Amino acid sequence: MKKSFILALAACGFLTINSGAFAQQTPPPAQAPEQSQRAKAPAPISGDLTNVDTTAKTLTVKSAEGTEVTFKYTDATDISGAKDGPAGLATMKNAKVTVHFTEDAKDMSKTATRVIVQTAK
């Protein structure tokens, strides 16, 4: 009987010591703000190209609903259907375009990742 009591007491001591170790474990890190505010890729916008500013690296598209949307573009933006990239795009006012873009969650700015100029059929 005394042996059983000692074993039970030892088991309780072991569990008590280990439960403290589990309580001291650090929780998993919270998701970094950069990840939650990472740019997201919404549906592309199609419409008429109304303005290209090659100095500010922006382009403006008027959607079918009549809303004008301004996009930033970078050297990495894929522009197809326009000769000479942004410079060629600047000469194509009122062309039908589709702009694929990302939107920054922080400042809601839109950056074009791909601009496709629809050619006349």
What does this structure look like?
- This protein has helices spanning 2-23, 33-36, 85-89, and strands at 45-53, 58-63, 68-72, 78-80, 96-103, 110-117.
- It is of the alpha+beta class and 121 residues long.
- The protein has 2 domains: 2-29; 38-117, Copper binding periplasmic protein CusF (OB fold (Dihydrolipoamide Acetyltransferase, E2P)).
- It has a 6-stranded mixed beta sheet with strand order 3-2-1-5-6-4.
- Strand 5 (96-103) and strand 6 (110-117) form a beta hairpin.
- The longest helix has 22 residues, at 2-23.
- The N and C termini lie far apart (96 Å).
Short account of what is shown:
With 121 residues, the protein is α+β, with helices and mostly antiparallel strands. The chain contains 3 helices and 6 strands, in the order H-H-E-E-E-E-H-E-E. It folds into 2 domains: 2-29; 38-117, OB fold (Dihydrolipoamide Acetyltransferase, E2P) (Beta Barrel), CATH 2.40.50.
Order of helices and strands: HHEEEEHEE
What is the percentage of strand-forming residues? 25-35%
Question: Main β-sheet: number of strands, strand sense, barrel status?
Answer: 6 strands, mixed
Could you give me the name of the CATH homologous superfamily of the largest domain? Copper binding periplasmic protein CusF
Overall number of domains? 2
Percentage of residues assigned to helices: 25-40%
Fold-level CATH name of the largest domain: OB fold (Dihydrolipoamide Acetyltransferase, E2P)
Radius of gyration: 29 Å
